[in-house]
Amino acid sequence: MNEERMQAVEQLQRDLAVTAETVEHPNGLCMVTATAKGELRAVHLHPALLNQGAQAVGHVVTETAQLATNAAVQTSFNKMALALGDGVAIDVESIAGDSPFRSTWHPVVPPKAAAPEPPAERRSRAPIVEDPDEDAFFENPFGRR
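The structure assignment produced for this chain is given below.
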């Protein structure tokens, strides 16, 4: 039993060493591959992003790198829970803090387009037609005489 646990820990260490996640920014202009330690393995930029200036590039790359790192950390927590059991994963979370997707879920979303303007013109209602029988109904609605 102890030998199996040691083998599981060694396999987990090997798996975690190569765990990386690739995430695309919600605007589709940047894709980053990062490890759970925050090491960036790849950064791909769409040419349209480069036209937006250095500050925009830095902002989008930073957000995407954070999302990729959080995804890699979450994958690490998931692998740990599978290898060592939920009890150990909960113990680790109590020491290291909650997994990224459990503690804070603040996805980066592109701004929504402005709501369309309501139509300025309102249709006029159909004219009310006078009905000579209407008064008779309300005077005696149940038809009693």
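Interim note for the steering committee: The chain is about 50% helix and 10% strand. The longest strand covers residues 30-35.
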